[in-house]
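Budget justification aside, the reviewers requested a transparent look at the raw inputs and outputs of the sequence design task funded under Objective 1. We therefore reproduce one unedited record. The lines immediately below are the structure tokens for a 277-residue chain.
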């Protein structure tokens, strides 16, 4: 939620200064991560792996020949607003909003400038927020953050965000796409690569990743075999257990969990009561 609000605030500020559609930009920003799983990209990878592993099983392919074979959080975000919200009726969003949600990450580039703003604002928000989180958690020290990138962007999160926002506005004025200047974009992508190497893929993060993956996979596989235990609102479109809706309902339910809910539910389902005390 914090990340989403940061993206919305950054995106709207840029759109206002470029005289673009602020409401469209904010709608894309608010919806862009609705499809994220518990434990973020680790949970996303877990669901994708679980579906791919099931698809390799003859029995699963026979039971669910048309079931999804992988998982992507951007596509799930689009599914939330098109299929799941408003009791299954969807939110009736315009095509530009749906396109921006789908294109906030991955290979699909949004067709609108507003969607392109959100795509870059997403990176601006998580890079700077994650640096602060890593510093508070002791994963990084202030001396660890590369000085050459900070020399371009700024020494703290507020300075970096200000530099990136101003640069995007100045570089995009009169342009047919949303861009950053070469030195600023290089510094931002350099910081992003640094975070992947030293935070997201660090030994500390990697030590917890298998646990998170196994938890998400366990929940998903449990509900594949026990879909009758899924809350009714996630089962509205399922016709019978040997249908694609059966698998999709399990995906929707697990993908919609928060970290805390997934942990609590996992304990209730798999940990003996006396061991939970």
């Amino acid at each position: 939620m914090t990340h989403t609000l940061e993206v919305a605030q950054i995106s709207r500020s840029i759109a206002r200064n470029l005289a673009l559609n602020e409401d469209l930009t904010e709608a894309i920003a608010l919806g862009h991560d609705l499809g994220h799983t518990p434990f973020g990209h680790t949970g996303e990878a877990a669901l994708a792996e679980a579906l791919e592993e099931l698809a390799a099983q003859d029995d699963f392919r026979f039971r669910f020949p048309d079931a999804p074979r992988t998982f992507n959080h951007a596509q799930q975000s689009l599914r939330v607003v098109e299929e799941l919200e408003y009791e299954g009726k969807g939110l009736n969003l315009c095509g530009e909003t749906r396109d921006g949600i789908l294109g906030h990450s991955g290979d699909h580039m949004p067709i609108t400038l507003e969607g392109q703003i959100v795509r870059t604002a997403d990176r601006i928000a998580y890079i700077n927020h994650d640096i602060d989180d890593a510093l508070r958690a002791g994963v990084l020290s202030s001396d660890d953050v590369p000085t050459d990138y900070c020399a371009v962007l700024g020494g703290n999160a507020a300075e970096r965000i200000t530099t990136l926002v101003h640069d995007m506005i100045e570089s995009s004025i009169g342009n047919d796409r949303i861009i950053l200047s070469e030195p600023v974009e290089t510094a931002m992508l350099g910081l992003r690569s640094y975070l992947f190497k030293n935070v997201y893929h660090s030994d500390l993060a990697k030590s917890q990743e298998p646990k998170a993956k196994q938890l998400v996979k366990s929940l998903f596989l449990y509900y594949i075999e026990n879909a009758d235990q899924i809350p009714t609102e996630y089962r509205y479109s399922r016709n019978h257990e040997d249908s694609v809706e059966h698998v999709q309902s399990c995906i929707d339910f697990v993908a919609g969990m928060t970290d805390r809910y997934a942990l609590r539910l996992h304990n209730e389902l798999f940990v003996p009561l006396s061991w939970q005390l």
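DSSP finds 14 helices and no strands in the chain. The longest helix spans residues 113-137. Computational costs for records of this kind are itemized in the attached budget.
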